[in-house]
């Protein structure tokens, strides 16, 4: 992202609040069960939250054919010690499903190696996906989370003067930062596990 770490932190908090407002209605939305400070040896000091997401209207058609309307009621636990964050999402209906997102934010251009400190076995199993916000290609992630509605190769911010983001912008832009996300999915459901994975990543991974 063409942002400093401090700017991205503000933008991230704004987008999380905006998403919660946009998905809230009389029948759906986000319930915050716990919101408190925490401190441990892994993250240091930060903010712990426990939330329940009721997102029935976002359930894909194929899921609604055999699952009840509450199938997309999700429980989220999050440990936010920015620039390190961890989120664990579970679904009471699909009891064996777990989505874990571990994020490390760095003020670099995305070329850092193994920022999550994975061992050899984990590195061998890892699949790396680079999401370029300025890309217009129709790849896997554009399918999962949707395509850009803004052409960043032509856009320039009137406030900061940053942009347009032309090819190779990551190596020229100042400031620049990267969100390194380690996404671990356990969806042991034969026949639709990967589709369930895609549906829930589309809901929770974008912010």
Automatic annotation (TrEMBL):
GO molecular function terms noted in the UniProt entry: phosphatidylinositol transfer activity
Domain of life: Eukaryota
All residue ranges annotated as the Phosphatidylinositol transfer protein N-terminal domain in the record: 1-199
InterPro entries documented for this protein: PI_transfer, PI_transfer_N, START-like_dom_sf
SUPFAM superfamilies named in the record: Bet v1-like
GO cellular component, one term: cell periphery
Pfam family, one: IP_trans
Name of the featured protein: Phosphatidylinositol transfer protein N-terminal domain-containing protein
Organism: Ambrosia artemisiifolia
């Amino acid at each position: 992202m063409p942002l400093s770490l401090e700017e991205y932190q503000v933008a991230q908090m704004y987008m999380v609040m905006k998403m919660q407002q946009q998905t809230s209605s009389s029948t759906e939305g986000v319930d915050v069960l716990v919101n408190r400070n925490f401190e441990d040896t892994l993250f240091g000091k930060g903010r712990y939250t426990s939330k329940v997401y009721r997102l029935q209207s976002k359930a894909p058609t194929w899921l609604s054919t055999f699952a009840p309307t509450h199938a997309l009621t999700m429980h989220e636990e999050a440990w936010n010690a920015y620039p390190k964050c961890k989120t664990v999402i579970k679904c009471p209906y699909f009891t064996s499903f777990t989505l874990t997102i571990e994020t490390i934010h760095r003020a670099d251009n995305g070329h850092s190696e193994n920022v999550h400190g994975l061992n050899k076995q984990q590195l061998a199993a890892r699949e790396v996906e680079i999401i370029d916000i300025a890309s217009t290609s129709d790849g896997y992630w554009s399918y999962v989370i949707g395509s850009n509605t803004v052409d960043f190769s032509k856009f320039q911010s009137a406030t900061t003067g940053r942009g347009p983001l032309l090819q190779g912008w990551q190596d020229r832009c100042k400031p620049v930062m990267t969100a390194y996300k380690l996404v671990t999915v356990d969806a042991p459901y034969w026949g639709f596990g990967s589709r369930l994975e895609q549906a829930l990543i589309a809901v929770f991974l974008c912010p």
